[in-house]
């Protein structure tokens, strides 16, 4: 009990919530971004490229399953500053979406096993990693609640703890046993324990944890977030399309090598998220107050930050990127400089697309994003196999960057149109009053 009380105090106590929010959001963003990379590095060094490839595709599939569980609700919940829906409504909705996500993950892996694409071993790894990601999706409803209440520091501390403890347990198990299946089982078990001793421990300070179905509000949340869910799901599918094509047409070793050079893409997104995640509530407040000049200033500043981060990543990729990644993962990546550089540009485009998703949600124009996601997903479905079959890993890298550029351009246009429409509506209300 003393340990639990100490943990709770660690999560809740802060001298300066605003300052700690930036610091801890940076820490948890880094941990979230490097989680799969660190595990992949340990797996490759302890078990070899084949197991690294199995884990890579399992993590890619599980990431899609995560977005089914999260259902695009976090951004909507955080920016619901007037609390039109209660925490109970969001919590009940999240339990339902997570159950659907778990069923979908098991179903996908089972289909691959039945079709002969996956061995029993690969099937089990995919199911377990999917279960872990479903638990992470459940945690997200608490993360959003704390942030909605102005305590991003609490969300970030709990998230950092929840990521670190299971990851360390999994790595230690890998080093000691060299058994990927057993290690992932330990990862799952410790994830459950870390959730109980972090998010659920702190949550009662921000509202009662209960499950109560209000069908009208359940339908409202679902209806409002369907575009966000479809967008997040399709964007991740689009981003992972080269990996799925590699899974279908190349081998597990090629999958592992592509994922090694793909990892820095997450660094760009992580740094961009570190900048804009703490300003989500402020963006919503400035927009709701009709302070368009300040709203635009924040948006332009964030776009410049993303551009600067991308330029830095490209410079690193052209110089020391492949030697450094090769040393980290214990693999020869010397022939992948072109692929790595192209992927860094794609990472910048992904960060830009994610940012436009956020700001379009703030102005409540998220339903207009769906057409862009659908176009990107269709393009990915039709062309990813050709690029991978014809050009291998370089083709996968080039196609990824093409897809991300297409999506970010479409979202930029949607954002400008939504802002223009919102300003017109504000002017009409002012004239009427």
What does the secondary structure layout of this molecule look like, with pairings?
Elements: H1 2-12, H2 17-47, H3 49-70, H4 73-78, H5 87-114, H6 120-148, H7 152-177, H8 180-196, H9 199-202, H10 215-249, H11 252-276, H12 280-288, H13 292-329, H14 337-362, H15 370-432
Helix pairs in contact: 2-3, 2-7, 2-11, 3-5, 3-6, 3-10, 3-11, 5-6, 5-10, 6-7, 6-8, 7-8, 10-15, 11-13, 11-14, 13-14, 14-15
Helix residue percentage: over 70%
**Helix segment count?**
15
Q: What form results from the Cα inertia axes?
A: globular
**SSE succession:** HHHHHHHHHHHHHHH
The fraction of residues in strands falls at under 5%
Q: TL;DR of this structure?
A:
This protein is mostly helical and 433 residues long.
